[in-house]
Amino acid sequence: MDTNTLFDNTEVAFALKNDSQLERAYFLFKMISHEPLVRIGTAATNFALKAKLPVEGLIRSTVFDHFCGGVNEEDCLPVIDKMYTKGVSSVLDYSVEGKEEESTFDEARDKIIKIIKFADEKEAMPIVVFKPTGFGRFYLYQKKGEGQIFTQEEHEEWNRIVDRFDMVCQLAKEKDVEVLIDGEESWMQDAADELCEDMMRKYNTEKPIVYNTLQTYRWDRLEYLKAIHERAKNGNFKVGFKIVRGAYMEKERNRAEEKGYKSPICETKEITDENFNTCMRYILNNLDDISLFIGTHNEESCYIAMDLMRDLGIDKKDNNVWFGQLYGMSDHISFNLAEQGYNVAKYVPFGPVKDVMPYLIRRAEENTSVAGQTSRELNLLKQEKKRRRL
Question: The domain at 69-350 falls in which architecture?
Answer without folding.
Answer: Alpha-Beta Barrel (3.20)
